[in-house]
Amino acid sequence: MAKIYAVGVGPGDPELITRKAERVLRTAKVICTPTGQADAASYALSIVKGIVNPLTQEIITQLFPMSKDESLLEEFWQKAADEVLTRVDAGLDVAFITIGDPLLYSTFLYIYRILRAKRPDVPIEIIPGISCINAAAAAAGIPLGMAGERIAILPATYADAELRQTLLDFDTIVLMKVSRVFDRVYAMLEELGLEKSGAFIRRVGSEQEEVVVDLASLAGKKLDYLSMLIIRK
Ligand SMILES: C[S@@+](CC[C@H](N)C(=O)[O-])C[C@H]1O[C@@H](n2cnc3c(N)ncnc32)[C@H](O)[C@@H]1O
């Protein structure tokens, strides 16, 4: 039986793609990029452009609407899962590519749930990738955790009270999806005296990679969706 692969393609640098991911991406007949962000989809594809071949492989970009309407999203996820199952039933291996690692805040996880429920007989192999967190910590030279320290990873879009408590409770705090809420987060960092204790990392591993430690310089700016903050006390 054909197989479904969830393939983490790393944060941007093609040298950070694992050998296993490369092998699967060369041999799978169908490559899928399910995503809620058109920009992120093309980013994932750009990472593997030297590996996949649109002449011999079917490349499907599955775009999902930016919506909080669960039932609308469910419709799109179901459709995406069906597209995959049609190929698998035709005997074709399907590889989903996701930025970083497939099990860390990835759109694949919604489809994974549907696939497992609909067709528990279809084998799914998950190939881990180097997450943007590991790559961003490396680019900024910031240790994520030593000895008994506590590390928190969360979307920066959390409400103020929870975000403040997390910043107080943990030693290293990784804030994903920070672009649209940066000014609010920066104000909180200032309030807690942490505004000089971290780095903003954008498009790590790509040619546009940027590491900014002067967080004040970012206030009021339109920031890239593919960016994060690492705060280290
Ligand atoms: C949907 S999550 C994807 C995480 C991904 N699965 C991983 O393991 O790295 C998207 C968020 O990850 C972060 N991100 C993803 N790729 C990034 C990159 N190359 N540089 C900086 N941040 C990135 C941003 O915070 C972005 O809003």
User: Per CATH, which architecture of the largest domain?
Assistant: 3-Layer(aba) Sandwich
Count of distinct strands: 10
* CATH homolog superfamily of the largest domain: Tetrapyrrole methylase, N-terminal domain
Q: Helix coverage percent of residues? A: 25-40%
Rg, Å, rounded = 19 Å
Classify the secondary structure makeup into a structural class: alpha/beta
Q: Which ligands does the model contain, each kind named once? A: S-adenosylmethionine
What is the top-level CATH class of the largest domain?
Alpha Beta
Q: How confident overall, as mean pLDDT?
A: 94
Low-pLDDT residue spans: none
Q: What's the domain count?
A: 2
Shape: elongated
* Sheet of most strands: 5 strands, parallel
Please tell me about this protein's structure.
The chain folds into two domains: 124 residues, 3-Layer(aba) Sandwich (Cobalt-precorrin-4 Transmethylase, domain 1), CATH 3.40.1010; 101 residues, Methyltransferase, Cobalt-precorrin-4 Transmethylase, Domain 2, CATH 3.30.950. The chain is α/β, with parallel strands linked by helices. Helix 3 packs across helix 4. The radius of gyration is 19 Å and the shape is elongated. The chain has seven helices and ten strands. The protein starts with a strand and ends with a strand. The structure holds S-adenosylmethionine. The site of S-adenosylmethionine has 23 residues, from helix 5, strand 8 and strand 10.
